[in-house]
Amino acid sequence: MKRLIQKLLRRRSRPKTPVLRPDGWSLRRRLLLIVMGTSISLWLVSLSIVVGVAWHATSEVLDDALEEGARLVLLLDPQGAQATPSTPGALLNRGDALKLRMYYQLVAADGRVLLRGDDTPKTAFLPQARREVTSTVWVDDELWRVYVRPGPEGVTAQVAQPMKERLELLEDMAENLIWPALGLLTLLGLLSWLLIRRLMRPLEDTARHINSKSPDDLTPVQGGNPPRELQPILDALNALMARLSAALESERQFTSDAAHELRTPLAGLRMRVQLIERELQLPDPHLQQLRTDLDRCTTLVESLLALTRLEPQAEPLKRETVDLNQILDSLSPSPPALPVTIERALAVTMLQAAPVLLSSALRNLIGNAVLYGGAGARVRIETTRRSDGGVRLVVRDNGPGVSPDQRTRLGEKFFRVLGTGQPGNGLGLSIVARIAALHDAKLSFEDGLEGQGLGVVLDFPAN
Fold this sequence. Notes:
Elements: H1 2-12, H2 27-73, H3 88-93, E1 103-107, E2 113-116, E3 133-139, E4 142-150, E5 156-162, H4 163-199, H5 201-212, H6 231-280, H7 285-309, E6 320-323, H8 324-330, E7 341-346, E8 350-353, H9 355-373, E9 378-385, E10 391-397, H10 404-407, H11 428-438, E11 442-447, E12 454-460
Parallel strand pairs: 7-9
Antiparallel strand pairs: 1-2, 1-5, 3-4, 4-5, 6-8, 9-10, 10-12, 11-12
């Protein structure tokens, strides 16, 4: 029966596996990347379309200019290389008259260049051309856009523009478009970040509300005015917490009922053992061991009932001003067979706490110190005022103590230090830990008196 109860309590007292927070992806960052990536992609596509349309329109205008230039070139006299600036040839070569300079040739039927403009290649652009044509050709390792217009006696007028100059015009056009577009993209990124942050605020508020709940608070999570997409998550979480609360309440009720029902049969068994000892009128070691085991079971049941009463309740803990001297006077931790010395060093005598719970905690701490210290043990109860206004309560002894690596497990249900040779069930410090949690106090352990034994520290917060 005892093993069954211990197994049940161990299952309830399993340490919670810490929830690791992997370096997962950020929804806010991903939304921002998607918005900006889509915007930049569409901007590049639209810029390509705009530049393409602009290039096509500009090319048509420039080709028209080539055609007009070819018409003027046909008016030139092949022998008029020394023409005045007012001639059509001079007009074609004036860089301030047109956006792009045009280079012209008068080509004979046999492919000879009869007349050409300044810096125009000596080789005919299209030597074999005899009809009107617009083409792109390589001449003198350079790409040219050429328009050919046939004239009288097989002479052709060929007017061209370097493609690199046309591309420079396209680059200037792109530069004029890119800086306003980059400014708009920067503004879009900033606005997207602000709007996404604002839209994600309900998630952050809900997460902050959940994080603020204590481990004992299983009430439904209220998300204020959550978005429609978040409501199913809150509903599922609240349903899970409701099932968990019902399961814990059922288990708590079972433990309480089982411990309460075990008190009567255990008391009856102990009375029967005493009657048998009286009838035998002889000390029987087996009966003495049975009575010891029954006492341990009774103590275990009482501890289980105490833990059940300390489970989280809906109502907050009622505290009042407690006089530590009165509580210590009411305790009788030392049995007559074990003479011990109880010392007090109370710099603070008044404490805000629940009197019954504080009395139970001190009873367990002093009882443990006396039990493990043995005959002649010294136990000292100390209180000091911390710098933040809180109160530190310490119970020290000069017993065998606990090694530092085992102190981390003190307070776990049913954990006992091996090799002490003392009876117990490992629930005393669990009760103290639960009482400390109810008072928002911190439980810790350090060395005892003169560097020996154990010191149990309870740091109560400021009022």
